[in-house]
Specification:
Elements (H helix, E strand, L loop, with lengths): L2 H20 L5 H4 L6 H4 L13 E5 L1 H4 L5 H8 L3 E4 L6 E4 L8 E5 L2 E2 L20 E6 L3 H4 L6 E6 L7 E11 L3 E11 L3 E12 L4 E3 L8 E3 L5 E13 L5 E15 L13 E18 L2 E16 L2 E18 L2 E16 L8 E13 L4 E12 L7 E9 L4 E12 L3 H5 L10 E16 L2 E23 L2 E25 L2 E18 L18 E11 L2 E10 L2 E2 L6 E2 L2 E13 L2 E8 L18 E9 L1
Parallel strand pairs: 4-7
Antiparallel strand pairs: 1-6, 2-3, 4-5, 6-7, 8-9, 8-33, 9-10, 10-13, 11-12, 13-14, 14-15, 15-16, 16-17, 17-18, 18-19, 19-20, 20-21, 21-22, 22-23, 23-24, 24-25, 25-26, 26-27, 27-28, 28-31, 29-30, 31-32, 32-33
Length: about 625
């Protein structure tokens, strides 16, 4: 099927759905067959079709993490590994040993991944704007589309439809002249809502560190690491008479950041540079329910712009998508697709470069019995001048009893080469898309005993990837090449235990991940990297927490462990490190929250990426007033 045919099908599907949404329902029985809550209006319909995988959900993200970035949130709440080039600098996620280009991240159905790079900088995603988050760990392109080889993160903003005016003012200040200020105003009624949010963040970022490239590892102050960011979110939501919802959203983000130099060049102004990023994202989302049919249509545009020295790397992207879910007793069906057009503006690309990326998928869920659920589906991807295989998904979940459930999943995934991969310095027609499979199996166990409430999980997975794209030396330049085969396997486990003692509540939780990711086949004979752990991928990561709540006081002590990993030299072993952080929140009134964070309490000297310093002990204090 050609891209033109695909575009025609998708546009026809979208246009045909709009008038159907407004038709009167003729069957009273069907009207009560499916009732979608408001929280589901902005949620993706696809996660439920994979009962064999574990999904983590986080609500009230903007309240819990006000002033932080998505990078901060994931490091504080999960055992996922994030590669940081310094405090507040570029941060990229690696799930199950995959690269940052192997995780899809979207907001209300719109991708936050920059198409030129094929990845999202987590330090550029302010959690203050978002209401809730869902994390799917594990590859499954049938559910989430191109690039979902390691996992997927879904961010949502959700209308509340409450009469009157409400909002908050949030202030936060801390070490290294760091400041955050944000304000949100919501106004509306039972049927409409307007939300305006804005924030500003600044830091001199002049922390002290140990310079391990100099004799005696002297303490130095970090130079050229200042950043200032601001952003605006505007949304308008309208609930129609038939309970369908139209949501118009707009985000503008501006990042003006110095590039933190390595410790060896900290004092050399020759290596001091800065970068400016601007992102515009607009989307119109229409969703609703008509008896057994739930629909969701999205039209979006975004523009990503980066200026480094005199080089501009920019791209405009327009897409439409449609999801249609039918509830047929024990069977759920979901059919949909996406049509995406990308027009880059990059000096290193040939003039007139453009690309179409289109997708069609079909998913199904069969609740065989109260204990057994089967899910699966398939997705087809159509990209300009690239052939991609179908991406299947098969899932199973079985409830042994009220405490124990077992799950299993098999899925295929694809990642199309990024625009830089394909067009930087000339079109790389020889590049193949990356192709992977994931097998996983696990169990979830929950019980209550002697006043304790305990939830736990265990997952094993195996994920081989063929034609992994890496940039390698080609004479005096670097060019993208397909590495024949990389394999990732490992386990993930965790628990959460809570007990109430009179007026207080204690909570104990831990999450551990063992990640074994190796290159099995190389482009070169006698490559020393074969059968060795991929660079910057720790085998062991752990997060453990003790929490205590009493009345209006909430306190948490969190420890995170990042195991040994290599730099780009497989024989260069970087030390493991352990960080201890504390968080205290006090609410003197229903609408006032005072918080304090203590980070790296043990004042550990460490580097996440080789030769990029990270701060020792630091702190911040925050105030949030709601109205």
């Amino acid at each position: 099927m050609s891209s033109d045919i695909c575009r025609t099908i998708l546009l026809s599907l979208l246009m045909a759905s709009i008038p159907l949404a407004g038709r009167s329902q003729q069957n009273d029985t069907l009207e009560s067959a499916v009732i979608m809550s408001e929280s589901k209006i902005n949620a993706s319909l696809n996660a439920k079709f994979a009962p064999g995988i574990r999904v983590e959900r986080y609500a009230n993200v903007e309240t819990v993490t006000a002033g932080n970035t998505l990078s901060d949130l994931l490091q504080r709440e999960t055992s996922l590994y994030i590669k940081e080039y310094g405090r507040g600098m570029n941060s990229y996620l690696a799930i199950r040993g995959t690269s940052s280009t192997h995780t899809s991240i979207d907001w209300n159905g719109q991708s936050l991944v920059v198409p030129t790079l094929g990845q999202a900088d987590l330090s550029h995603v302010p959690t203050y704007f978002f209401d809730n988050m869902t994390i799917h760990v594990g590859g499954n392109s049938a559910l989430y589309g191109n690039g979902s080889m390691g996992g997927s993160i879904q961010l949502r903003t959700t209308p509340r439809f409450k009469p009157g005016t409400s909002g908050d003012v949030t202030l936060k200040a801390g070490s290294f002249y760091t400041f955050f200020g944000g304000a949100t105003l919501r106004t509306g009624s039972d049927n409409w809502e307007s939300r305006t949010s804005a924030y500003y963040s600044f830091s001199k970022n002049n922390f002290k560190f140990r310079n391990n490239t100099k004799r005696g590892t002297p303490r130095e102050r970090q130079n050229n690491a200042r950043y200032s960011n601001y952003g605006i979110l505007q949304e308008f939501s309208r609930r129609m008479k038939d309970e369908s919802v139209l949501q118009l959203s707009f985000i503008y983000l501006d990042f003006d950041r110095q590039i933190q130099p390595s410790v060896s060049t900290n004092d050399s102004e020759y290596y001091h540079h800065s970068v400016l990023d601007r992102n515009v994202k607009a989307t119109a989302l229409y969703s609703g329910t008509r008896g057994i049919w739930h629909y969701r249509a999205n039209v979006a545009y975004n523009y990503d712009y980066e200026l480094y020295e005199e080089d501009i790397i920019a791209a405009g992207r327009f897409f439409v998508s449609m999801e249609n879910q039918l509830s047929l007793g024990k069977v759920l069906l979901n059919a949909g697709g996406k049509c995406e057009y990308i027009r880059p503006d990059v000096d290193a690309y040939a003039a007139g470069t453009k690309e179409w990326r289109n997708e069609l998928y079909l998913l199904a869920l069969y609740n065989v019995t109260e204990k057994l659920s089967l899910g699966g589906g398939v997705r087809a991807t159509f990209v300009t001048d690239i052939s991609t295989p179908l991406q299947p998904s098969v899932n199973l979940k079985y409830g042994v009893n009220k405490n124990l459930s077992l799950r299993a999943s098999f899925s295929g995934s694809v990642k199309v080469p990024t625009l830089n991969d394909r067009y930087w310095g000339g079109t790389a027609t020889e590049l193949e898309p990356e192709k992977g499979f994931t097998w996983e199996a696990g169990a979830d166990y929950a019980f209550k005993m002697y006043g304790w409430s305990v939830k736990s999980y265990f997952t094993w997975y195996y994920s081989p990837i063929k034609d992994w794209i890496r940039w390698l030396p080609a004479g005096e330049v670097w060019r993208p090449r397909n590495v024949p085969k990389i394999e990732s396997d490992g386990v993930e486990t965790g628990f959460d235990a809570e007990k109430v003692f009179g007026s207080s509540t204690w909570n104990f939780s831990a999450k551990y991940a063992y990640t074994n990711v190796m290159m099995r086949e190389s482009l070169y004979s006698n490559d020393p990297g074969v059968d060795h752990q991929v660079a910057y991928q720790p085998k062991h990561t752990l997060i453990a927490r003790v929490g205590y709540r009493y009345g209006r006081i909430d306190a948490r002590l969190t420890g995170t462990f990042t195991g040994k990993r290599t730099s780009n030299d497989i024989y260069d072993i970087m030390k493991a490190y352990f960080l201890l952080n504390a968080y205290l929140k006090y609410s003197p009134g229903d609408n006032i929250t005072i918080s304090c964070e203590l980070n790296n309490i043990l004042n550990k000297s460490y580097q996440n990426v080789k030769f990029y310093a990270m701060p020792g002990f630091n702190f911040s204090a925050g105030l949030q007033i709601k109205f």
